[in-house]
Specification:
Length: 302
């Protein structure tokens, strides 16, 4: 594999710095949604990828996989075994997303096509493929994996290392439903840290050399958001999230954080997680009383 690393801003909904597809030699890591496909193809400028390395199947990361498989007949798609079924038959994923986004679904994410089963390379919990080492990193999603390019030390970490929009240093943990698991997430961060990577390459957005500072900020953010959500007050949580990013950056960059990881969805994921921990006991977070946002990443059904 070539050691050429190229970040491709797919300009989701016309906005820069929201979603980054990484070109790693002849492999694309997380191509983004189908709604941004033409931008991605324009940036590729005739280049034909050999494979897609998916960190997980959420539509902001992998929604274009089926469209790219249709365009490039030799393309392989790499995905963890728990996510493979959603590529081969995305109907359940699309149904779940439509319930969340309603009429905004097509504008946000485009047409979600199936990937032919014979083109899907199913990954286990750890191993190597196509010059990249991978490991299972659940927490944000049960089927999340990270990839390491060992010669360079670059780690392609999807959402498990959070959202960080340059020029800001703030790291926002993306905690959407349905399968947030903070204990598993902390273990996954430890696995990434154990790789001792030189850089973290995020989908949202860019590559960062301050690995330990970044991972520590993520861990603090997970604790902070869990405590904020444990109060059970949706409005207080959303306002608190907004205040944290407003204190860390300018309004334009804050809007990018919100598009990449909407506070409403962070609340819904943590509410579900904390309710599961409490087992329906008194004191669990209250159910949200207002309509759901239609701006951020869609998640697969289990």
């Amino acid at each position: 594999m070539s050691e050429e690393f190229c970040p491709i801003d797919v300009r989701h909904l016309g906005r820069e710095r929201v979603i980054c597809c990484w070109r790693v030699g002849d492999v694309l890591v997380d191509p983004g949604p189908a709604s941004a496909l033409e931008t991605l193809l324009g940036q590729l400028d005739g280049f034909e990828p050999r494979a897609l390395a998916l960190t997980h199947v959420h539509l902001d990361h992998a929604g274009a996989a089926g469209s790219l498989a249709a365009r490039f007949p030799g393309l392989e798609v790499w995905v963890h075994e728990r996510g493979a079924r959603h590529l081969i038959d995305p109907s359940r994923l699309v149904h779940s997303a439509r319930r969340l986004y309603g009429e905004e679904m097509d504008r946000l994410w485009g047409e979600v096509l199936a990937v032919p089963e014979e083109r899907v390379r199913v990954l286990g919990d750890q191993g190597s493929i196509g010059g990249l080492r991978y490991t299972h990193t659940p927490g944000h999603a049960s089927h999340h994996v990270c990839y390491l390019h060992e010669p360079s030390g670059w780690a392609f970490v999807g959402d498990v290392a959070g959202v960080r929009i340059p020029p800001a240093d703030y790291v926002r943990p993306p905690t959407p439903p349905p399968d947030i698991d903070l204990e598993a997430w902390r273990r996954s961060v430890a696995r990434v840290r154990g790789w001792a990577p030189e850089r973290l390459a995020l989908t949202h957005f860019g590559a960062f050399p301050d690995v330990e500072r970044h991972l520590y900020a993520l861990e603090r953010g997970l604790d902070d958001f869990a405590q904020l959500a444990a109060g059970g007050h949706r409005r207080a949580f959303i306002d608190g999230v907004a205040a944290r990013v407003a204190a860390a950056t300018d309004p334009q960059t804050a809007a990018v954080y919100e598009q990449a990881a909407p506070a409403e969805h962070l609340w819904l994921g943590l509410e579900r997680y904390l309710n599961r921990l409490c087992g329906g006991a008194a004191g669990r977070p209250a159910a949200p009383s207002e309509g759901r946002s239609a701006r951020g990443p869609a998640q697969p059904a289990r």
